[in-house]
Sequence to fold (637 residues):
Amino acid sequence: MSGRGIRIEGLRKRYGEGDTAFDALKGVDMQVAPGEVVGLIGPSGSGKSTLLKCLGAVIDPTAGRMTLGDEVIYDDGWKVRDLRALRRDKIGFVFQAPYLIPFLDVTDNVALLPMLAGVSNEESRAKALELLTALDVHHRARAMPSQLSGGEQQRVAIARGLVNRPPVILADEPTAPLDSERAMAVIRILNDMAQKFETAIIVVTHDEKIIPTFKRIYHIRDGVTDEEAGEGREFA
Amino acid sequence: MISLAGRDILHAWGKFVFTGIGLGLLIGVTLIMAGVYRGMVDDGMALLDNSGADLWVVQKNTLGPYAESSSLNDDVYRTILAMPGVARAANVTYLTMQVRKGESDVRTMVVGIAPGALGATPGWPPYLVAGRQITRAHYEAVADIATGFKLGDRLSIRRNHYEVVGLTRRMVSSSGDPMVFIPLKDAQEAQFLKDNDAIWQSRRRTEANPAFNRPGVPGLLDAVIASQSTNAFVNAVLVTLQPGHAPDEVAESIRRWKRLTVYTRAQMEDILVGKLIATSAKQIGMFLVILAVVSAAIVAFIIYSLTMDKIREIAVLKLIGTRNRTIAAMIMQQALALGVIGFVVGKITATFSAPLFPKYVLLMPLDSIAGFFAVLVICVLASLVAIRMALKVDPAEAIGG
Fold:
């Protein structure tokens, strides 16, 4: 694999100790190349959310190895010190609901991440506008989140996830609240952005409409993943 | 970096402004309470300043004439005048009473001043805003403008009527009652003047007493009744000193040789502030503490509610890499902004409403500055609960499940 993308090997996560111990992840292997969009599918309680939280550096795995680009971020108990900076600079998040900051306009919602990383306000806003233009919501740059439609909000959320050019984006049910047309539009955007910015994108979903669009799919059941080839269907 | 707190305030400005106004009214009341205390102290200082005295000679072992009643014979001042270092000595009486003003009455402190002249006799009102000083021995008065009297008005004290010939300003008792100055003899009479029925009853009792009504001593009964009808007492003697004499030394000399109690200016200030208004000061202090606690509770509740409303956003902010200190600063800045809005509203409210209060409210700039910093400290403390809650938010809450 090249210098970007994500790879996890033998990832385990145990909650509790002794008799109450529960293994949510039992040795997950996964690899997503730069520019690739893969699906992660599984029933409730299968370990999807736990895997997402481990991938997002929100909780620590119990064992295994996780590599982001060239950087090992977790290796059997060892982990990088500044997980906050790691999340800010190396991982993009797109949620089921857009969760935009309601008191910031569209531009500043996107520009906030580079600002947090110490980039000047002007440069951050320029980066944000570039992405908003790429996602075709630049005409709403000064609007507040409450003034946007659901689809526009989700595109702004994608722009926020991409603005620091992270090697990986974790998308948690990004199309759940959208109708078919808008859901397909979001998937098209994610694919376009993955190609354009060489970003590895993992889409956690239950959405039957978009599952056929993935070329590769990871099924997770009882804390274990199986990889299968997807249909890779063209977007409608 | 943009100001997250500022943006949030602008976004929800209505909530902040209305909460700030509510908090401001509380702060306004707090400043007024502090002003009432300052006014009481200032009233006491004005009372001492306006008396023009260096020493107060009062009845032995009393805290008179302001904090306790005091009674001295009205010829004591002559012996005090002869003491080394004494420049001037004058009798004075103080009587707090309702003075008739037409169909109503007004609460005043009636001051009996000895005959003399301004500058030559302690106790006289030091300046007038209209009219003249008292020149006749009876039935003239100089009134503080706060009594509502005007030049030429007639006021009634007991059964006597007085014409207002002069008006003065800021002449008040330690409790803030405006003063009315009348001649000493009239004031002495007013202190003991009884109604006709009481005089008749008193005479009847004296006549029935065989000790005073002896057939073999003609004129004794008339002399006793005459002594009962006059008042030869005053409340204090006000003393001014000759240049170069220390108040403590002259006071000690009078105490030793005249066997009276004498207070210097510093001792009188201690009595007024430390004893006369001490209970009121404690009461006001209690109110200030309660108001501070209530203000802190309001700020804490509002900031806590605002933070609760943003829990999901805070989780997202933490997930995308926002530092804890940035989130804490956002919450604290909002609390401080609320405090600043509240203080501005409170200061304006206190400034414009202070003159409307019946008692003197003295708003000191230093009190306002101290109040401002106290508000900021209260806001910082009040925001700690919300900050603690925000810092405990798990960024994983932003990710489903």
In short: Chain B has two domains: 4-43+278-396, 60-193+235-259. The radius of gyration of chain B is 31 Å. The mean pLDDT of chain B is 90.
